[in-house]
């Protein structure tokens, strides 16, 4: 039995982290039995979630977890794709994880109202005399990484404008297909779903969410993926919620 370590449900999502969501959906895609445990990033070998324990082996980072699952269990997440399509899927995945994701981070962590509503509660169990300092330090570290990503160097509206260009590329790629690369989901769909659901959750209000809601095919895609992989989760269709 594989054990997946993540943050757990929250923020109106079945899993708080887009990267843990990615791995969990890929486990579901592969039909692999797993159990899920809550953890905190310091418990991971790389200081980040997700990580898995598979028999005697511990694997951290969602991309390396995928490689482990493919190597050990012989499941090809991109089986229907041509060599060219595999290359395109990889490029889109990098765009999502290194651009769209950081726009999500800005909306959640750098925006003061959203930070207070969401991530600040990660520290609710800390000793009272340390709680505010831990919150301030965590927000500062994330804001510093956001700056280093490049997006944080721009005004908030410029940050969103740049993110929307990547969302437009995803919308064009999706078109009227059920999944990003065709009729069946591939590994990259797990990545896209995790990030897009994280942006579209009604828990947070942001300009990024408002702009993303304008891509009707992306909102329908998130609804479709949620129903497919988390049918038990109470998720209101995005357009209905909007």
From TrEMBL:
Keyword check for Transferase: yes
Pfam family, one: GST_C_6
Keyword Signal: no
GO MF annotations in UniProt: transferase activity
Annotated ranges, domain Metaxin glutathione S-transferase: 165-225
Residues in Thioredoxin-like fold domain copies: 18-114
Keywords of the record: Transferase
InterPro entries xrefs: FAX/IsoI-like, Glutathione-S-Trfase_C_sf, Glutathione_S-Trfase, Metaxin_GST, Mito_Protein_Transport_Metaxin, Thioredoxin-like_fold, Thioredoxin-like_sf
PANTHER family: FAILED AXON CONNECTIONS-RELATED (PTHR12289:SF41), METAXIN RELATED (PTHR12289)
Protein name, as recorded: Glutathione S-transferase
């Amino acid at each position: 039995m594989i054990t997946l370590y993540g943050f757990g449900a929250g923020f109106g999502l079945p899993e708080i982290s887009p990267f843990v969501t990615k791995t969990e959906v890929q486990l579901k895609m592969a039909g692999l039995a797993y159990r899920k445990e809550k953890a905190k990033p310091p418990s991971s070998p790389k200081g980040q979630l997700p990580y898995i324990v598979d028999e005697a082996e511990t694997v951290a980072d969602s991309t390396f977890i995928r490689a482990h699952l493919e190597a050990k269990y012989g499941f090809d997440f991109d089986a229907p794709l041509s060599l060219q399509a595999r290359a395109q899927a990889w490029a889109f995945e990098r765009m999502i994880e290194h651009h769209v994701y950081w726009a999500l981070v800005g909306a959640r962590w750098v925006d003061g109202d959203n930070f207070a509503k969401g991530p600040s509660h990660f520290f609710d169990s800390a000793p009272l005399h340390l709680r505010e300092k831990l919150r301030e330090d965590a927000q500062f570290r994330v804001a510093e990484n956001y700056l280093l990503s490049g997006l944080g160097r721009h005004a908030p509206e410029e940050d969103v404008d740049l993110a929307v260009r990547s969302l437009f590329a995803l919308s064009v790629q999706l078109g009227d297909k059920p999944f990003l690369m065709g009729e069946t989901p591939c590994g990259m769909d797990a990545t896209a779903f995790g990030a897009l659901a994280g942006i579209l959750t009604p828990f947070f209000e942001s300009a990024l969410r408002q702009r993303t809601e304008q891509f009707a095919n992306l909102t329908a895609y998130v609804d479709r993926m949620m129903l497919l992989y988390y049918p038990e989760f109470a998720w209101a269709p995005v357009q209905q919620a909007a």
